[in-house]
Recover the amino acids of this structure.
């Protein structure tokens, strides 16, 4: 078994899973501090409160501030229009939930029922996307809080409108960006993509860099899929994304050719130096592009001596030298291919540089242009169908929804139905809502962070109130400070966020419930109860990642199979090659890879007895990555040689590969060892024999390109066969 295909983590006992949660709860990520955006959020939050205090309309000011606070800490990295949609839907959800909660607050059993329904709904929305999750969470928060204040229908409507006004005000102010901020997420994502490409270019074979590359591409597709593609800027962003994919393919091919030109002393020293320097210069150019994308979108005019022009000119000169040495090289054909793909890479970099500097390409053959279709989830995004497909106990989202619904209903019943003296009992439900997540690690990390942060926040608030005995004006100031810090550090550390959000809420409620000492004590007690309740419910009915990882592994295998088979069939019948279709298959494969890897990493943070066998799962993921790299090399050749000679002899090999991957799929699905595989070596020999009657140079070149990758595919499939040949496969998966 090859354990080098994927990094294997050390196995640890149950308590180490909790230890990981503890360490994660205390970890502070400075890069996630949002100090500047928090200023605007805090102003919007404090302004209505200050006006309400000054004009003696405290209740109205608190209501509007409460609506603004619900959206004050939200940080979305999605494009401008997607952010507007999410925040506006959250406003509607908050207002509707506030109305329903305050209207039904007088009826105990109905409050319990509604809390359960809202919990199930919020849990199911996790199956859609982050935006839907935010809307569901904020709506449930509003329902739980307002159910504590039993109001008449008119009062409930007024309260809902005031909270809607606060949330809408926060949305409007948040969505007034400068021209740079308006396209900030797209430019930042693309800058990160080209920065990652720069590192990737220096060592394509490095698995760590390869994973970063896949993640960057997936994030870029996800971000741009929500942008306004019809605009001029949107078209340029998508064009940059297309070229990044082309550049990646070119880099893979050049890296595959590089060892043949640098591995022995026969190759001239100048050849080796120019090959290495060419790749380094390409990486430098990608770095320059990334820096340009990160700069504000003003017109940038490079001088003739700019770094961008220097890099491209240097690449041109190096390719000229290598081309002149082709005839003298013992690897003439390989060197010729390197020069060909080097020219393609240089043309791609020239085009990207022209786009980011608002210039028109002035030289180099234009790269093949194709339109990236919307990702499948945006082409056929049927919310009802997605939710319907998740109505199964196999679904992580559905299990999470049931857990959350039960937790919120029971937590509400504790203070609405049962005779327990919880004067601020809705904090039990609030805590359970904020802690319970679909997976073990996040749930326990949030539970520890929330409990620690809330108790500490309660203590600090008590000390401040007891020591300062603040007036209303001072209370507004203290609330502003607490809110600003909370808004700033939400993504950096959840425990510290819980400290200051506790202080902010207690200070705010003091304006309408002037019992701060009691309030903080009750909040600490109720938060502890809510934390224990959430963790207990998850422990009684957990969703161990081990039950989910095989499904993600199957999805990854399906995606790899579809891509590899489609590429190989395009060599047999060139007319079937469709670059847009291949692009869609690539996106599916990347998304499946991200899901499978994330699932495996989550499993490693769970107790050992529930953990997957990382040797098998990690090895399979690594093997699938190797298959994908071979497919990318083969696709790169097809893109640059659209009229390549047909190789019908590859058809049998393609069908055997398809059958072998189907066998692996059945083994994973049924948790049973693999059966015998089709004879891939015989199919390969038939492919090699097909070259003998061919005399055309183009056909020979095609076969030469295919042969190396076909051998790699055979070796990788044999490795996967060994990984899935264990008699105890059901226990390992």
């Amino acid at each position: 078994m090859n354990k080098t295909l994927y990094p294997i983590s050390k196995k640890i006992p149950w308590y180490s899973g909790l230890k990981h949660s503890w360490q994660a709860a205390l970890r502070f990520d400075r890069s996630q501090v949002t100090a500047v955006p928090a200023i605007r959020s805090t102003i919007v939050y404090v302004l209505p409160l200050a006006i309400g205090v000054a004009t003696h309309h405290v209740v109205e000011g608190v209501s509007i501030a409460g609506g603004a606070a619900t959206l004050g800490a939200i940080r979305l990295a999605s494009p401008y229009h997607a952010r507007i949609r999410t925040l506006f839907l959250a406003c509607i959800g908050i207002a509707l939930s506030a109305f329903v909660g305050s209207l039904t607050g007088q009826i105990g059993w109905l409050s319990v029922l509604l809390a359960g329904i809202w919990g199930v709904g919020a849990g199911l929305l996790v199956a859609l996307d982050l935006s839907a999750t935010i809307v569901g969470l904020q709506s449930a928060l509003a329902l739980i809080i307002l159910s504590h204040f039993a109001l008449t229908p008119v009062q409930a409507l007024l309260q809902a409108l005031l909270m809607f006004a606060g949330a809408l005000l926060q949305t409007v102010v948040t969505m007034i960006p400068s021209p740079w901020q308006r396209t900030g997420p797209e430019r930042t994502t693309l800058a990160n993509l080209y920065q990652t490409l720069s590192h990737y270019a220096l060592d394509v074979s490095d698995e760590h860099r390869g994973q970063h590359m896949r993640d960057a591409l997936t994030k870029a597709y996800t971000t741009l899929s929500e942008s306004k593609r019809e605009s001029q800027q949107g078209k340029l962003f998508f064009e940059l994304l297309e070229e990044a994919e082309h550049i990646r393919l070119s880099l893979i091919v050049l890296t595959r050719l590089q060892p043949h030109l640098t591995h022995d002393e026969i190759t001239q020293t100048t050849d080796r130096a120019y090959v290495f320097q060419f790749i380094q210069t390409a990486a430098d150019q990608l770095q320059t592009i990334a820096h340009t994308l990160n700069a504000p979108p003003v017109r940038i005019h490079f001088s003739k001596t700019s770094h961008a022009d220097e890099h491209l000119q240097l690449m041109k000169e190096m390719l000229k030298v290598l081309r002149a040495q082709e005839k003298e090289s013992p690897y003439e054909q390989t060197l010729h291919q390197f020069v060909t793909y080097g020219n393609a890479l240089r043309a791609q970099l020239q085009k990207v540089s022209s786009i980011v500097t608002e210039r028109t390409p002035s030289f180099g053959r234009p790269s093949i242009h194709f339109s990236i279709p919307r990702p499948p989830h945006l082409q056929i995004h049927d919310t009802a169908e997605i939710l319907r497909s998740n109505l199964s106990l196999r679904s992580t989202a559905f299990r999470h929804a049931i857990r959350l619904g039960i937790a919120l209903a029971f937590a509400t019943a504790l203070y609405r139905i049962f005779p327990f003296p919880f004067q601020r009992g809705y904090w039990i439900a609030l805590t359970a809502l904020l802690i319970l997540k679909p997976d073990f690690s996040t749930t326990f990390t949030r539970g520890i962070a929330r409990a620690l942060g809330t108790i500490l926040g309660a203590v600090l608030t008590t000390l401040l109130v007891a020591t300062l005995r603040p007036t209303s004006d001072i209370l507004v100031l203290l609330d502003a400070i607490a809110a600003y810090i909370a808004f700033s550090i939400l993504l950096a550390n959840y425990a510290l966020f819980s400290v200051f959000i506790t202080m902010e809420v207690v200070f705010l409620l003091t304006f309408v419930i002037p019992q701060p000492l009691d309030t903080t004590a009750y909040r600490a007690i109720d938060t502890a109860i809510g934390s224990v309740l959430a963790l207990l419910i998850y422990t009684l009915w957990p969703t161990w990642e081990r039950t989910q990882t095989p499904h993600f592994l199957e999805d990854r295998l399906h995606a790899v199979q579809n891509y590899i088979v489609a590429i190989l069939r395009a060599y047999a019948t060139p007319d079937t090659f469709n670059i847009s279709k291949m692009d869609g298959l690539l996106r599916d494969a990347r998304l499946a890879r991200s899901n499978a890897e994330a699932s495996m990493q989550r499993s490693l943070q769970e107790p050992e007895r529930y953990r997957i066998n990382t040797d098998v799962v990690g090895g399979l993921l690594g093997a699938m990555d190797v298959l994908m790299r071979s497919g990318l090399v083969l696709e790169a050749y097809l893109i640059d040689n659209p009229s390549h000679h047909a190789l019908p002899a590859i058809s049998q090999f393609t069908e055997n590969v398809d059958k072998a991957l189907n066998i692996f799929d059945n083994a994973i699905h049924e948790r049973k060892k693999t059966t015998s595989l089709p004879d891939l070596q015989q199919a390969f020999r038939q492919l090699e024999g097909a070259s003998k009657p061919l005399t055309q140079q183009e056909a020979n070149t095609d076969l030469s390109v295919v042969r190396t990758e076909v051998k790699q595919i055979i070796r990788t499939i044999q490795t996967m066969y060994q990984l899935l040949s264990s008699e105890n496969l059901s226990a390992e998966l």
In short: The chain has three domains: 33-176+382-540, 185-356, 545-732. The two ends are 16 Å apart (CA to CA). Residues 545-732 form a domain with the Methane Monooxygenase Hydroxylase; Chain G, domain 1 fold (CATH 1.20.58). Confidence is low (pLDDT under 50) at residues 1-14, 298-305, 359-381, 693-700.
